[in-house]
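Extended Data, panel c. Modelled sequence:
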Amino acid sequence: MSKEILEAVRGLAAEKNISSEKLMEALEDALLSAYKKTPGSAPYAKVEMDRETGDFIVWELKIPPELEEQLLVESATDSEPTVDPETGEMRDPPEPEIDLEKLKEYEDQIETEDVTPHDFGRIAAQTAKQVILQRIREAERDMMFEEYRDRVGELITGIVQQSDSRYTLVQLRERVEALLPKSEQVDGERYDHSQRIKAVIKDVSASTKGPSIIVSRRDPELIKSLFELEVPEVADGLVEITGVAREPGYRSKIAVVSHVDGVDPVGACVGPRGSRVRMVVSELRGEKIDIIPYNDEPARFVAKALSPARVREVLVDDRGKQATVIVPDDQLSLAIGREGQNARLAARLTGWRIDIRSETEFAAEEAEHGYEQEEAQGRCAAILSNGRRCPNAALPGSRYCGIDAHQALAGKDTDEVEATGGSTPEPDGEETVGSAPQAVAEEGSEAHPGELEQPVTIEAAPTDSA
């Protein structure tokens, strides 16, 4: 029987990738517990199992009375009264027991005697089976926890097993299930039985029944992971998604930047005929996605983040991280979006507070109050031919931006560009935010002088952007 147990332990250890020594030690502990339940068992004993033959012996430990008293006193000092969780009353500490680990320090003072019961083979076989199965389950739970604990934020694919009003159970693989709670579900989405869904791992914790894995369909990391899956340039690091602003189920904005010359970040994410982004939109059940090219200049970035609305001008306050955006009157509602959604997502994406004004409203306020120098600190002081102030940032140590015609105003009595005479490279039909001119309109749309170029906006289907 001993050899059969030994072979079974070694076979299971190899199959389940568990240390055989760990199972043997657990088996020794289990046999000791079984021995203590037999009538007339010794108060102190230990079990030793031969690792080669599988034979085991129960040794009685004969502790001298003086040493026993000393060890009991040491064990009693570590115990304290506890509170009964059911009644709330104080309970006396249990009778002190001598730790077998402490006995190893006094082996030279302790005599041993073989007290192995005659019928202990049957008890050992039954105990061995229970202990080995239990330790295998524990080892498998530990292995699954170690496998998933470092995968937080990773995209996983699972099959819906059960769904109700509280949570949805998703099977990741055999004997591994994840929980999709109501708080991590997207409003309006249905999760039918046997349906395959994608989600990101939100949290992994250990429990008595195995690892507790929480997944999410609302996390912004889901969009990043889906683009990594569909866009090779993102997976290889050629294109980076620098930020994501999302209102799950309705609309998302992502900012992308290219780290390689010649690679268009927006075009790479859109794909041929929109095939790549269409796959992401399909997995998100029709959620609209705006792809915004990232820009280091806050004014340009804010203007592009308000897509699909056209922007006339952006005034930035670097100290307060606040941007005042002027849009045409017919673009005001589009820039704000339905219930403020477009402006809210743009603010989250850029990290700037955005104040949107129509041209008529801004012109009235400017005529009534004017703008002091402090309100536009760091802005070019040149006045363009259309009567508006240049929106570019002034160069360090200068009142004007890098345009030669504007720098030529230094030392003159006027800030108006047209008063310098001759043909100057004053922007006409274009307006700049930063240090370089921008295209005035999207391809195929009517050109509006002074408008900033717009990024690409991708939606699930042709719908009204709001």
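The two ends are 77 Å apart (CA to CA). This feature is highlighted in the accompanying rendering.
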